[in-house]
Structure prediction request, 240 residues.
Amino acid sequence: MPTKEFKRAARIILVGAPGVGKGTQAERLMKRYPQLSAVSSGDLLRENIRNRTPLGVEAETYIKAGNLVPDDMILKLILNELKSKRWVSTSSSITDGSPASPSQNPSASFILDGFPRTATQASRLDALIPINLVVSLITPVNIILSRIASRWVHTPSGRVYNVDFNAPKVAGKDDITGEPLTKRADDDDKTWKSRLQKFDDTSQPLLEHYARKGVLWTVKGNSSDEITPKLFQELEARFA
Prediction:
């Protein structure tokens, strides 16, 4: 795949239902645009807990108590990561009430994963780090359910296969270890229909928020291969 360069910083969020292929699109975008990095709130949280940072220790107390980690704490994790890369002003803080002066250097481009999930969280993020493209990925529900029915996993490694488009070399066996593949316990129609409905309910206010900001772009397709070229074209029109 040929690579392309951005001329200005892209600060991107991908929004899509479970099973729509967000991870696939993020991987393809980062291969196509080497200046683009992933910033995952979940990874940052796990890393800070593992390294026993002050934020990680504090976050762990919420998790152990069975509570959600507060939005402020997630924002601090994201901001600290961007500051460490010098993609935002190193003096910025979530309490100073002013944007963090994000760099316009193309190498300060990132895809933010895992946050925000609600319009309230998005408003908090706007005040700190303005996102300049939110991509709504849409694939018909029947296609997503068909993908899930064809999905098999190698549980120890997390490797995922799909008999329709990413089949293992030997049916029912992991390519690397040869160990048996299994179905996830929650990969059934009823569970997935419930998850997809919940996503619709919670994502609509988030998408409306970004539509009002003028940064929402929607792309539809029955497969990742159908969506990817449209995504490349849009990013190159905006940033390359």
Remarks:
- The two ends are 16 Å apart (CA to CA).
- Residues 189-213 form the longest helix (25 residues).
- The first strand starts at residue 11 and ends at 16.
